Amino acid sequence: MTNETGPLVLAKTGWVYAGGKVETIEGKQYTVGQIYAEYMIPAEQRSPYPVIMVHGGTMSGTNYTGTPDGRDGWAQEFARAGYAVYVVDQVGKGRSPYFPSVYGPKAPTDMANNQSRYVAQEKFKQWPQAHLHTQWPGDGTFDDPAVQQLVASQLPSIKDFHRQQELNVAGLIALIDQIGPSILMVHSQAGAFGWPVADARPDKVKALLAIEPNGPPFYPVSFTGAPDWFSYSDTMALRYGITDVPLTYAPPVSDPAELQIVQQEKADAPGMVRGYLQREPARQLPNLQNVPILVVTAEASYHAPYDHCTVNYLRQAGVEADWMKLADHGIRGNSHVLMMEKNSAAIAALIIAWTNDRVAR
């Protein structure tokens, strides 16, 4: 396998399951709660720590193992840079089997969501930055071969977002305990998994790469187009701020209602969401404070108006996360599915450079 950056030579490929337990379902025994990962071990492994790549909500591990127009994915780019790579299928997705009686009902995928949020958002202009999108490797119509590959790859999700978090946090902790200290990459919906995994294993998560992680803190935002752009929900989605499962706060939180929060009166800048922070004095997140954390935001993504809310929340809690806004590095026009777009290799190179710098090799 080759691309413009040179050959990829692997010492080994394979797969592994982690976590899970045996349960009896309709009189038969099954393993449930397990998480699947396929791995690539480069012939020249230059990092002692593998990278675990966790896909987003309607996706699977194929997000990282290639692009819809046939180029190498981030898994190959990281392996070429000397990192062993483990690409996950979330619990209940792809090669991680689905058990309705244990996981609950599924939520179907919505093909129209791809056009308005990922592949042709510049035509819909639902948020202020959407018109800047230029990087989809096709014309963004339903007949576009790259779009057809994307929609064919998508999978239903466990409907209950809290249940998703419980199952995948447990599965990822089991995977790290099984393969050893690792760098954890999470995208989109999986962002809500990354924080509690790093919180539970701060000694084993050697860095957390949060690629447009689920947010903003506490309350979701809907996009309405001009002139108002944003609609603020009154239904809380992330009771612990950046996730809906418990985190280690100092002083401790026995009930998430103890987190006193306040919404910004004024946004950080025009075209930005007014996010939520803790009321001062803010509780701290001590277990995340020594984990190198990178938050990556694309210029035209629906995360562009609100990823600052996540970064602000972390920093208020004593977590000095680095925030990589791709446009500041000359990488422009990307959507939320940045690992699939025309300049995906350049984005991977930036993240690899940060990881090389921040994680001991």
In short:
The protein has helices at residues 62-65, 74-80, 100-103, 111-119, 121-124, 145-153, 161-179, 191-200, 307-316, 344-358; strands spanning 2-3, 6-7, 10-18, 21-25, 28-32, 35-42, 51-54, 85-89, 106-107, 157-158, 182-188, 205-213, 221-225, 229-232, 261-263, 276-278, 293-297, 322-325.
Explain what this protein looks like in three dimensions:
This protein is an alpha/beta fold. The protein is built from ten helices and 18 strands. It has helices at about 60-65, 75-80, 100-105, 110-120, 120-125, 145-155, 160-180, 190-200, 305-315, 345-360, and strands spanning about 1-5, 5, 10-20, 20-25, 30, 35-40, 50-55, 85-90, 105, 155-160, 180-190, 205-215, 220-225, 230, 260-265, 275-280, 295, 320-325. It has an eight-stranded mixed beta sheet with strand order 3-6-8-7-11-12-17-18, sandwiched between helices. A two-stranded antiparallel ribbon has the order 1-2. A hairpin with a 2-residue loop joins strand 4 (about 20-25) and strand 5 (about 30). The radius of gyration is 20 Å and the shape is globular.
CATH architecture: 3-Layer(aba) Sandwich
**Helix count from the secondary structure assignment:** 10
Arithmetic mean pLDDT: 95
Distance between the termini: 25 Å
- Domain unit count: 1
Global outline: globular
- Oligomer state equals single chain
Beta content comes to 15-25%
Biggest β-sheet strands, sense, barrel: 8 strands, mixed
| Share of helical residues | 25-40%
Indicate the radius of gyration in whole angstroms.
20 Å
- Pattern of helices and strands: EEEEEEEHHEHEHHHEHEHEEEEEEHEH
- Name of the CATH superfamily: Alpha/Beta hydrolase fold, catalytic domain
Q: Which segments are poorly predicted (pLDDT under 50) over 5 or more consecutive residues?
A: none
**SS-based class:** alpha/beta
Q: Which CATH first-tier class would you pick? A: Alpha Beta
User: Can you list the strand order of the major beta sheet?
Assistant: 3-6-8-7-11-12-17-18
Q: Strand tally, please?
A: 18
Per the CATH scheme, the topology name is Rossmann fold
